[in-house]
Amino acid sequence: MTLLFGRRARLRWLHLIIGGALLMPYFLAAMVVVGWFHPHTELFSSFSQQLTAFACALPVAAVTALFGPARQLSVAAARALCGVPGDRPLADGPARTRQARVRTAGWYTLHLALGGVISGATLAVPPLAGTIAVLPFSRSVRESRTFGLPEAMDRPWILVLLPFVGLAILVAMAGCAALAGALLAGRAPVLLGPTPQDRLAAAERRAAELAVRNRLARELHDSVGHALSAVTLQAAAARRVLDSDPDFVREALTAIEETTRRTVGELDSVLGLLRSGEEHGATGPGLDALDGLLEHCGVPVSCAVRGETGTVPAAVSREAYRIVQEGLSNALRHGGHGVPVELRITVGAAELEITLDNPLPERAAVVRPGGGRGLRGIAERAVLLGGRTQAGPHGDGGWRLTARLPLGTRGHPRTSEQENR
Questions:
Q1: Which EC number(s) are documented for this chain (predicted)?
Q2: pTM over 0.70
Q3: Do the beta carbons of residue 43 and residue 66 sit within 8 Å?
Q4: Torsion angle defined by CA atoms of residues 185, 186, 187 and 191, in that order, rounded to the nearest 10 degrees
């Protein structure tokens, strides 16, 4: 009995009655039109005319479902009343594609058609069943012109069965309503679920959001990670010579101050992007800010620049700055304070080339748990611009990081060659 009269069955029954109520304006308008062709017939006296009006009303309802927020309203009603399985999601938002609108029209027509039938049965069947059930107890009802029984049926054993017949009619009507509600619930994910175009649009939105998050994560990693590495090593070096070399300690504290001040500004910029949720208008230091970075990076750097860095596009310039910053951070982290780094920047006609060389320490560096993401982030920055990177041992005990970034239009990403450091 739960399947027929449980909470889910009652909600689905209510959903069908709402469909019947939505059908009424179309049905009444169709009855008026049908009545024009039968002027001498009473409007609601002919079942054939009602059936014709019902059939004419459904196409009109389907057409109206092609416009407006029909899918949003249908989805809200189906979620609240239909009991759609949770593993079969329904679509959100209005129908923007032709396929989505056609599916919505199909759902709306099915809902109104089944709702009209079940609503009509809900109005007509209970009084009929009740009358049949009371026939054995009321001779006046049995002899009435409205519901008179044939003499052949006016027998005791037949009268005894009539209450059960009335109850069976009610149960049959409840079963029909339950079947119609289950049919709607089963078709809802198909007709109101996301179309392939909806899934593609959702995937594109998720990809765009993920790209923004990855970009901001790289910004935080490169700026804050570099600053923390530089500050930590500067402080450690200053602590070791605190009593013997106060001038070096003073220089180290100045470098720490400049590094943290610059990093706080970069952190505010990244957090501003996070708060606004926008990637447009992205700002950050470029190649014109390299002097400040090299001065307080914590390692001695010899820098050679060929070409005009001012002609480099802003987006490429920002990514190049971050690549240099992360390369210096790696050199500082793995080589330690005082390890020389050679930086070469070449601005060509078609691409920008960045090369960082530094010696590897004789003693293996301590790698932080879980490994780093620096080289991976460098590769991602280059690939997004259509460039490539290469990192690994080079020459006699050295390490080389090379990045090539195109200066023209963005090309197809190429494979990045790198080794775990």
A1: 2.7.13.3
A2: no
A3: no
A4: 80
